[in-house]
Design brief:
By secondary structure, this protein is an alpha+beta fold. The protein has six domains: about 5-195, Hypothetical protein af1432, CATH 1.10.3210.10; about 205-340, Beta Polymerase, domain 2 (2-Layer Sandwich), CATH 3.30.460; about 385-480, Roll (Ubiquitin-like (UB roll)); about 485-550, no CATH class; about 570-635, no CATH class; about 640-715, 2-Layer Sandwich (Alpha-Beta Plaits), CATH 3.30.70. The chain is built from 27 helices and 21 strands. The strands form five sheets. Strands 1, 2, 3, 4, 5 and 6 form a six-stranded mixed sheet that branches. Strands 12-13-17-15-16-14 form a six-stranded mixed sheet, covered by helices on one side. The protein has a four-stranded antiparallel sheet with strand order 19-20-18-21. The radius of gyration is 36 Å and the shape is elongated.
């Protein structure tokens, strides 16, 4: 085959770093590259950058899927033919890794449009939230390292922008993931281009002292190795290089000059197991006096990124301080490769995949909550919320806001500022008007539409309506209403409760008893509880239902035969009718009772027992005329649903019916029939819906949410 058309790709695939790709796959890639219809363009890269990317991934022991995903991302002409490649069981993983790299692009664009360093933590959190497979991050880090190595070829503005992105996003993520192999070089290269004079000064001082320092470290290594062997501890002792950026950070943090830093001199001890770590520590402290304030046990209490090692500093030969790290070989691999080391688990079959997934889930917990520079330890991090419990949304100015899962645009508004929330009238998400109950997703761009005056709604306090997911936001609304005078709160609570009872077609003659149930001193105090969101209107309505149910069962009429006191389950077990057998039982169409409401039976002449709501007006007339036909009835155990008629009055707008039916479906109810009585050119919509619901509680929640839809002025039950 003629390879003249593909010298760059063939050279890449022949590199040791591409050896993880099977021979049939490499051959298929070359054949595609040779095909006339395949584009040879590279996505913002160069052959050298791509080669360095693959080499960096090889350092991290990347698997076939990661190497191929990095290659195809930079070669869109090959990616277009992904379906034709012989990938076997790697196909799903490769597609996911490519999608993850695509998802990261908006984060780079957001960084380019902001001031240096501003809200970088938010961008890092956003990046981790929108990338579902954490193995994408090492690929991004490897590519950024390759670009930084080639940064000298860019003009100064481009070079500084690339270095700032590296310092703000990539280097901290490498630290979070524990990938020290890439972290130190990313930090040093960014430092070199952002602060060239300081970098050169420190590099010069390091170089000038290198010979004496290396001679001293070599002496320490020999002494320590000899003593460890004498104690029967198998160990490898090596010098540990210090990097320019870490030296500068230490100088800044401790306010020391270069020649005052003790950890410029450092050695590392690697042993076989944890017990040997502590034994080696004892040898070190027996040889040289420890510096008390410079001991850290990251084995007993690992860092948040799972870093484990013993750190100590001692006063070594000639009275010079030297830093010593002690760890096992496995700890060293974890420290150098971090999360990338766990690619290897994927090679171990199903058990290995489970171990990998558990590790990634655990690591994401730590990544999302660890604050840059605080060094959160494992004990605290394990109590943090899962990554999936947070949503990262963008403001129009590209600020990243950290919100709880299920957060709405209204939560977003209150997170921006309390008064923005109070003045919120609507919201746009990604340029589209959405209801205030819309559930935000990571990466959504949110614009809050505000009015001139603060005017929060009391409905926002009702969890069932879904306006607010954050307790903090809800408390801000509650605080607003607490500041209103008593009379206004009483009036507002009365209106909320009356609206709820009207929606459900309920009476509320025994509000005094309900007030006692909710520990309110009076009905007015109950209204205030409702107004402030301390007690929901639906809670009061259910209490009234229970009271009515207890009082609505009349005594059996003496004129009817009572051969036994048995109870017969009739009507498909939906009802229990006392003392009457073998009769048809049916729901009254006039009031359409729903499971959970107080009910009463009426014995008809030819249609068996008709079940009415206890407060049904038609039942009251029948009872007055024929009280002997009234029967005690209770709800049985069977489900199946209940029909109920509902009226919705609203502004006649586009997608109104779609929004209503979608909401009903989301609440697991069913639409049996819809009638529209719209008056042409009136701008109003009058809808009558026959629904099938499971019980009273579902009906109450559904009516509340229908009432909260944009443009809806009323949603209530008929009958």
């Amino acid at each position: 085959m003629n390879r003249a058309s593909a010298p760059g790709l063939e050279a890449l695939l022949n590199r040791p770093s591409a050896a993880v790709l099977p021979a049939p796959l490499r051959e298929a890639l070359l054949q595609l590259w040779d095909a006339a219809e395949t584009s040879h363009e590279m996505r913002g890269s160069s052959p050298q950058i791509l080669a360095d990317t693959l080499d960096a991934l090889a350092l991290l022991s990347a698997d076939e899927g990661a190497v191929l995903a990095a290659l195809l991302f930079d070669l869109p002409g090959l990616r277009a033919h992904l379906d034709t490649l012989p990938l076997g069981n790697h196909r799903t993983a490769v597609v996911g890794l490519l999608d993850g790299q695509d998802a990261a692009d908006p984060v780079w664009a957001l960084h380019a449009g902001r001031e240096a360093g501003r809200n970088s933590e938010g961008l890092r959190r956003l990046l981790l939230a929108i990338i579902h497979d954490l193995r994408v991050v090492p690929i991004l880090l490897a590519r950024q390292l390759a670009r930084m190595r080639a940064a000298d070829k860019l003009d100064e503005e481009q070079r500084r922008a690339l270095a700032q992105l590296t310092r703000d996003i990539h280097a901290p993520l490498a630290n979070r993931l524990g990938i020290w192999q890439l972290k130190w070089e990313l930090e040093d290269l960014a430092f070199r281009h952002l602060e060239p004079e300081t970098y050169r000064r420190i590099a010069r001082e390091v170089d000038e002292t290198r010979i004496a320092r290396e001679r001293y470290v070599e002496h320490v290594k020999k002494t320590l190795s000899r003593e460890l062997a004498a104690q029967g501890i198998h160990a490898e002792v090596s010098g540990r290089p210090k990097h320019i950026y870490s030296i500068w950070r230490k100088m800044q943090k401790k306010r020391l000059a270069f020649d005052q830093l003790y950890d410029i001199r450092a050695v590392r001890v690697m042993v076989d197991d944890v017990a040997a770590c502590y034994a080696a520590l004892g040898v070190v402290h027996a040889l040289w006096a420890p510096v008390p304030s410079e001991f850290d046990d990251y084995i007993a209490r690992p860092k948040a990124n799972d870093y484990r090692s013993l750190h100590t500093a001692v006063v070594g030969p000639e009275g010079r301080t030297i830093e010593v790290q002690i760890r096992t070989h496995d700890m060293h691999a974890q420290a150098e490769l971090g999360v990338a080391a766990h690619w290897k688990y994927k090679e171990g079959g199903k058990g290995g995949e489970k171990a990998f997934d558990r590790k990634i889930t655990w690591m994401r917990q730590l990544l999302e909550q660890a604050q840059e520079g605080q060094g959160n330890e494992l004990a605290g991090a394990l109590d943090a919320e899962l990554t999936e419990d947070r949503v990262y949304a963008l403001s129009p100015k590209d600020e990243v806001l950290d919100l709880p899962q299920g957060a709405t645009p209204l939560d977003f508004a209150y997170q921006v500022h309390t008064m923005v929330g109070h003045r919120c009238r609507g919201a746009k998400v990604n340029g589209r008007i959405v209801p205030l109950t819309y559930r935000l997703r990571s990466g959504d761009r949110v614009e809050i539409l505000t009015g001139k005056e603060a005017d929060p709604r009391r409905d926002w306090l009702m969890p069932a309506l879904g306006f607010l997911a954050s307790n903090r936001s809800r408390e801000k609304v509650r605080s607003w209403f607490h500041k209103l005078d008593r009379a206004r709160n009483v009036q507002a609570g009365r209106e909320l409760l009356e609206r709820e009872l009207k929606r459900l077609g309920l009476q509320h003659s025994d509000l005094a008893a309900a007030a006692k149930k909710f520990h309110a001193d009076s009905v007015d105090d109950l209204y205030i509880q409702v107004a402030l969101g301390d007690t929901g209107p639906n809670q009061v309505s259910r209490a009234l239902l229970e009271a009515e149910r207890a009082a609505s069962q009349p005594a059996p009429a003496p004129t009817l035969p009572r051969p036994t006191a048995r109870r017969e389950n009739l009507g498909s077990s939906k009802f229990t009718v006392q003392g009457v057998g073998n009769l048809l039982v049916q729901l009254a169409r006039c009031c359409q009772p729903v499971a959970g409401e107080p009910i009463v039976g009426y014995l008809t002449r030819s249609r068996g027992v008709t079940v009415h709501r206890a407060d049904c007006a038609a039942l009251a007339r029948l009872a007055a005329a024929s009280p002997q036909r009234i029967l005690p009835v209770e709800w049985g155990q069977a489900g199946g649903g209940y029909e109920v008629d509902v009226v919705v009055n609203a502004v006649d707008r586009r997608w109104l019916l779609k929004d209503i039916t979608n909401l009903i479906a989301q609440e697991d109810a069913y639409v049996l029939d819809i009638h529209s009585d719209n008056v042409r050119n009136s701008g109003r919509a009058h809808l009558r819906l026959r629904l099938k619901v499971s019980d009273y509680g579902q009906l109450s929640n559904l009516l509340g949410k229908l009432d909260a839809l944009p443009g809806v002025s009323e949603a209530r039950r008929l009958g």
